Queue: 2 jobs
Job 1
Amino acid sequence: MKNKILQSSRPTPEVRGVLRNKILEVPLSIKEASGIRIFGKTIKSLVYSTDVAVIKNTNADAIMAVYPFTPQPIITQALVTAADVPVFCGVGGGLTSGKRVVNLALDAEFKGVMAVVLNSPITNEVVKQLKETIDIPIVVTVVSQHEDIRARLESGVSILNVSGGKNTSNIVKSIRKEFPNIPIIATGGLDDDTIIKTIEAGANCITYTPPSSAYVFKDVMKKYRFNYRKNHL
C-alpha cells in the first residue's frame, strides 16, 4: 500500500519571545508564491537589506544583500554572521567585473552564502568563468524584457532576478512565456496587489524591501515621548 501524505487542517502554532517579539514581517501574500528549492530549502521571500538589525529581526526565508558599493569580503562575512537564514550576496557585475568578481564569488561561497547575485551589466563570459569556479547558484539581475535571456542561461545562470520597477511583472510574464521552468525572483513592490500580480505573472520568489530601521524606530520614539508626557507632565 502506498504511503499517504497527511494534510493537516490544524493551525500552525506560533512561539514568540518577549524581547524579540517585534520583527519585520514580509507581506502574507508572498506565501502564494511557489518558491524556489535550493539545497533542500524552499525560498519564497527575500528581504532586500544589508542592515544587520533588520537581517537579524525578520521572518523572511532569505536575505537579498546587494549594495551600491564595491563588494568586500568583510561585508559578506558580517552579513552571513548576522543572518539566521540563507544569504544571497551581491558580488558585483557593474563597476566590479572580470577576475575580481570570480574571486569575490568564490570567497562568498567559502563564507557560506547560498547564492551569488550579479548586476545586469555583467558579461556572459564572466558568468561562464563563475560557473566553472563555484558550486552555488548564480543569480543575474534582469532589468529589461529585451535582454537576451537565452544567452544568460546558456552561460550558466541558475536563477533570474527581475528588477524592472513598475515594469517588473511584464518582464516576468515575457520571460515565463519562453522559459516556463527557469527559477525567477522578482521585486514585488510594497503592497499585496503588486505582489500577487508579480506572482501571477510567473515569479517563484518575491524580494521585499522593508522600511529602514530609522523609520521603524520613529514609531517607537513617538510611544516613548507619549508615555513620558503622560507619566511626568
Job 2
Amino acid sequence: MMEKTIEETKAYLGMWVTTDGYVRHELLKGGRYDEARGDRKSAYQGNYRVSGNHIDYKDDTGFSADGEFCDGVLYHGGMVFYKEDN
C-alpha cells in the first residue's frame, strides 16, 4: 500500500516554523498563507498550491517560490520548517 501524499491528507494545513522560530508560515484553508518574520506579523501574504508533496507559493506582490514536504518536514527557500503542534 502506498503512503498518501500531504496533498491527500491535508496535513500541510497549520503553522510551520523554523527551528529558531524566526520565520513562520501559516498555511490556511482555501489556499492562502500568512508569513511572519521575527516581530513582523503578516510580513508576507499570498496564495499557495499543494500538488502531491510539492508546494508553490505566490505572494501578493507577485514573488513566487516553491518547496517540498518530506517526512513531515517542509524544505523551502533554503530553510527547514517543522509543523507546530496545536
